[in-house]
Amino acid sequence: MTVRVRFAPSPTGEPHIGNIRTVVFNWLFARQNHGQFILRIEDTDRTRYVEKAIQVITDGLRWLGMDWDEGPGVGGDYGPYVQSERLSIYREKAEELLAKGRAYRCNCSPERLEAVREAQRARGETPMYDGHCRDKAPGEVSPDEPHVIRLKVPREGTTVMHDILRGEIVFENRLLDDQVLLKSDGFPTYHLAVVVDDHMMGITHVMRGDDWISSEPKRLLLYEAFGWEPPIYAHVPLVLGTDGKKLGKRHGAVSIDEFRRQGYLPEALFNFLALLGWAPGSGEEQEIFTRDELIARFDITHLNLAPAVFSYDKLNWMNGMYIRALSQDELLERLIPFWEDSGLIPTPVPTEIRPTLKLLVPLVQERLKTLRDVVELTDFVFCDIATPPVEALIGKKMTAEQSLNAIRQTQALLAGLLHFDAEAMEGPMRRLAEDLGLKAGQLFSIVRNAVTGKEVSPPLFGSIEALGREKTLKRLEVAEEVLMAYIGGQKAEG
Questions:
Q1: Which residues does the annotation mark as catalytic?
Q2: Which of 101, 298, 360, 446 is the most buried (most CB within 10 A)?
């Protein structure tokens, strides 16, 4: 058997990252078994349809490196792969069930249906269709009048689902609704469309979230009604936040595009998602895997049946590891879009700016958790900084006068350097601290605040080199003026 799995999103917005985790499992399963991964767009819910959502979905999958063997933009032997282009197929299949006596037409008005549900709720019953049209004679409801087509669900017996993770799950048929298959507008409901498509496209395995378990008998009954063999099921646990609640926007980013814009590497996010509820084996400590390693080692039966916890701390750690594994040239190219998007540098990057950017890369590489962190770490190089408060310019256990002298001595030293680079300035700056009777940290802290406007920055001397002599001396001059004004004010008060 050739393994065929699918991802079938609805274009109602950006796919949730919890769903994308399940897509990762499907993709790995297909690749490991030398099967096919199919992309299918389920756009029958026209009330929630979002323009451009399909493009967002496909762009996100490509960014994560999950190619598809069949589907939009690729083609295949089982198309079309967009449900709104398959309406005639669903109508044909619904008519087939009518002919078999396994479905019926229902012309109940929305008002009647709501009244039935209200009465059921008042009695403490689960709202469901009361079967009003179930036993009407064929032709009693005209095909030409507004109506829906419903599945005639057996009133007795059970429906059994076989799940490779959970074993057998049994459902009582009497508790199931006569579900709508074809709506009055001619569009199928999800259940009819997904069963028809999965069968006709030869889907062998369906891996989805366990929140679908309760509705699975609706689809199994359709397979039985058509006389088709259902696929093999694997219902995976949901993804929760660290607070134990279903992952949502309150926990952070929840879509692929948000993670991309926040500066996560696609290979890091893919690695993280693959290990979210799955591990290669007991006692396995490895956490960083290449894509080929994940394909080779993935085993759906090793999924933990407990809900997975999405930890941003863990993701940030993993993303940082991937960032540090990049060459400096590759990291530079990945950082440039974030500098551009923030407005720190023009687009396209002027040639004369590239040397400065190259200087910054090794300074920040060890400090980055996400690519976007580079903006806050390096904005002082490209933008004017606020005038530092005097408190930031007075060194620890130093007077304002001592700090002013240190600033002036630093100005003179840096102005006189033949080569304005980190290596050339570090030794003289350390000797200056000694000459002033200061610890190096005391002097460097003052200078850091003066030239970067930050208490924490990339390595000081590399930062000064990237900033350049002119800007550095200008900012030291401003710091000198702040200290002089403060000292003058103190004397005036005294």
A1: 249
A2: 446
